Amino acid sequence: MSLEVTMPQMGESVVEGTVTKWLVKEGDRVSEDQPLCEISTDKVDTEIPSPGSGIIARLIASEGQTVPVGAALAVIESGGATAQAPVREPTPVERTAAPSERAPQTPSAPTLPPGHARQRQAESAGIAAQPRLREPSDAATPPSPPRRYSPVVMRMAEEHGIDLSLVPGTGFGGRVSKRDVERYLETLRSGQAPPSQTDGIQAPPAAPAIVSGPAPSVSPSVFRPPVYQPREGDAVEPFSRRRKLIAEHMVYSKTHAPHVGTVAEVDLTRLVALREAHKEAFRKREGFALTMLPFAAMAATRALKEFPRMNASVAGDSLVIRREINLGIAMDAEEGLLVPVIKGADTFTVIGLAREIERLRAKVQDRSLTADDLAGGSFTLSNPGREGNLYGFAIINQPQVGILRMGEVKRRPVVVEVDGTEALAIRSMMYLALSYDHRVIDGVLGNRFLYRAARILEEADFEL
Description:
It contains 9 helices and 18 strands. The protein has helices at about 115-120, 150-160, 180-190, 240-255, 270-285, 295-305, 350-365, 370-375, 445-460; strands at about 1-5, 15-20, 30, 35-40, 45-50, 55-60, 65-70, 70-75, 260-265, 310-315, 320, 325-335, 335-340, 340, 380, 400-405, 410-420, 420-435. Helix 6 crosses helix 7 (about 350-365) and helix 6 crosses helix 9. The longest helix has 18 residues, at about 270-285.
């Protein structure tokens, strides 16, 4: 009997994974739960265990290949036979395998590039309606249903006056992504013939049809970014897949969400005194230190309840005000920043938030975070720590509309009022910086939210 190893579902927002390394080869005998390969998603890296014992009859997905959830990765002969698994109709994913695994003269289907999971999550409702990739033998297949496009892709088509039916799609099921449109426009500007929409079959060059608006400029760009050539003694570190995903996310956020930053000065003197009074008992009871982070998390949560439009996500041309407050906590990891999420943060006490933050921090350190730990965030809090400097503006974690960043707590002289008289006093001060999406959050709302979060911290009305 043969067992099929498939790409598992590793979280509500994970729709694909990349096979980064095979730990076995064809003909190897494996046992149940033995790691077969390492995969990487836009959330986590993990290993795929064997569903049973037997011999690896076939490796379907190749290293570096990105495949959707549910796609076949390998076939195991559980009876011990080394024969190949029964021949079956290849899936669109299997048609993207290495050239040595393809039948002669079979046109290749476009591979699935990494980094499109976020867009596909927003378009998941249309995935099932996509037809399988056509081959020359599919001439008698009924016409495919109309192609679907994301709001971003449709807006780009309208701005540049291009016909999306002429743009080759490299997404799942041939879906056209923002990157596909950019490549198509670059091809037009360079004067080259646009690539064909067919599966690997070259078609005569076709001029783009005008949809509306002015035609795109075909003049070459004047600016060319300088490229540094490494010299002797330089250390070159290629981007890991996670670093590429982080870079893509950050660039997308900055180019799509007009960031506005505002800063509040917070007097933490009362809060510092509260923490000092309880920190030793807390450490003995809980086994870890009581920091300012859970207090800031509680302040952010209370402010979000008072200003629910800050606890929202952008979906196309709509703002979705979230019912649940799922607070993301930015944490530093070996391969880059991660943002695990405290689900239902408004249901926790300060002690509960401290425990959740410590639990997630431990999972980051031992690399045991799951995709669900990183999914579903509605607002993000960032704490660079003691060396975080005075303040800084963080980039919004899409599709959220705001992120709050703590600064370093410093003791300095401040003018205070004592019995109606101004005086200088040494106070524990911190800057709290908010970045918000000006497409949907106006300055009045952003400032009111930040002011409220700062006052909650200053009042230090927390139970320990």
